[in-house]
């Protein structure tokens, strides 16, 4: 379950701080890939959220392409937003991280509609 370890909580806090303190247009694809790599490391070993890991891997691949497909990128960000919201509102959701995950969902949704 997301939020069940300190690395996940730390990544959530770092991600929220990054997006709240930076104009998303100023973030490079390389920064995005590094952020995704951090999330993949934090989520490693958590079989309950394979869907998020699959989406992150797909997003990583798109960001690493020479000319990322912007429509596909928007679709992936929106899908990740939906998944993050579902996890935050799920029956097994608990702890203070759920509010942060809902905030992240909103940020991803905004990025998906404005990219």
TrEMBL record:
Name of the molecule in the record: Uncharacterized protein
């Amino acid at each position: 379950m997301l939020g069940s370890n300190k690395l996940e909580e730390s990544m959530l806090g770092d991600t929220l701080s990054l997006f709240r303190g930076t104009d998303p247009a100023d973030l490079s694809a390389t920064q995005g890939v590094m952020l995704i790599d951090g999330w993949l490391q934090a989520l490693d070993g958590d079989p309950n959220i394979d869907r998020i890991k699959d989406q992150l891997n797909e997003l990583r691949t798109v960001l690493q392409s020479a000319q990322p497909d912007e429509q596909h990128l928007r679709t992936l960000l929106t899908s990740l937003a939906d998944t993050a919201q579902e996890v935050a509102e799920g029956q097994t959701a608990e702890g203070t991280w759920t509010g942060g995950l809902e905030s992240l969902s909103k940020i991803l949704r905004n990025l998906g509609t404005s990219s």
